[in-house]
Amino acid sequence: MKKSLLVISALVALLAMSGQASADSLTLGIGNTDISGYPAPYAEASYTCAANACNFTVTGDTTGGYTYLLGGAGMFGANFNEAVTLSGFSSGDMSSGGSGNLDGFGVYSATINNFDGFTHALSTFSFTATGLGGTTLALTPNASGYLVAGHIFVSGATCGDVACATGFATNGTVSVPEPASLMLLGAGLAGIGIWRRKSA
């Protein structure tokens, strides 16, 4: 009876973890040569993935007196573990660009274009990526080792009505998983370990 309870509790913990949404955020802090002279970070990409969909909110940062906006062709790119469709754009000027190379940071499986350049650049935007392969959708590093990248427009008081510079930025490292997921995983593994030890 005790063995059955341990097995059931371990399976419940693992199942609860697999169905839970994963939330994470990435800092776009590595700029290409066009913007690397301006202080990072340039933008933040927050996302929540559950089952076959990921919801993104991308926000340009203000650092060292400069405000960073995102826009133009290759406004944002993300690399997923399977093919996706993009929808739910927060701006009518946004559209899916398919797979594409974002200047120096490699090819991303999904990119977003924004109409025009600096004139229509955005400080924040959101969208949804829906997987087409039937697996749990997740970000995965591209061939260059990056998950996401953005087309950055640098603006500030010294720039006037034009961008001081435009370039691309990408993420450095992935942030640490949320504590609740780690606790569920630990509980499930502990339950399995206890069950194996008692059945031996």
Specify Rg, calculated over alpha carbons: 21 Å
Per DSSP E runs of 2 or more residues, the count of β-strands stands at: 12
Q: What's the structural domain tally?
A: 1
Overall residue-averaged pLDDT value: 85
From the N-terminal CA to the C-terminal CA, the straight-line distance is: 16 Å
Major pleated sheet: 12 strands, antiparallel
**Count of discrete alpha- or pi-helical segments spanning 4 or more residues:** 2
Helix/strand-derived category reads: alpha+beta
Assembly status: single chain
The sequence of SSEs as H and E is: HEEEEEEEEEEEEH
Overall 3D geometry? elongated
Which range does the strand content fall in? 35-45%
Low-confidence stretches: 5-20
Secondary structure: elements and pairs:
Blueprint: H1 2-19, E1 22-31, E2 43-50, E3 53-60, E4 62-63, E5 66-70, E6 76-78, E7 84-87, E8 94-101, E9 107-114, E10 124-131, E11 148-156, E12 165-171, H2 179-199
Antiparallel strand pairs: 1-2, 1-12, 2-3, 3-10, 4-5, 5-11, 6-9, 6-11, 7-10, 8-9, 11-12
Helix pairs in contact: 1-2
In short:
The chain has 200 residues and is of the alpha+beta class. It has 2 helices and 12 strands; from the N terminus they run H-E-E-E-E-E-E-E-E-E-E-E-E-H.
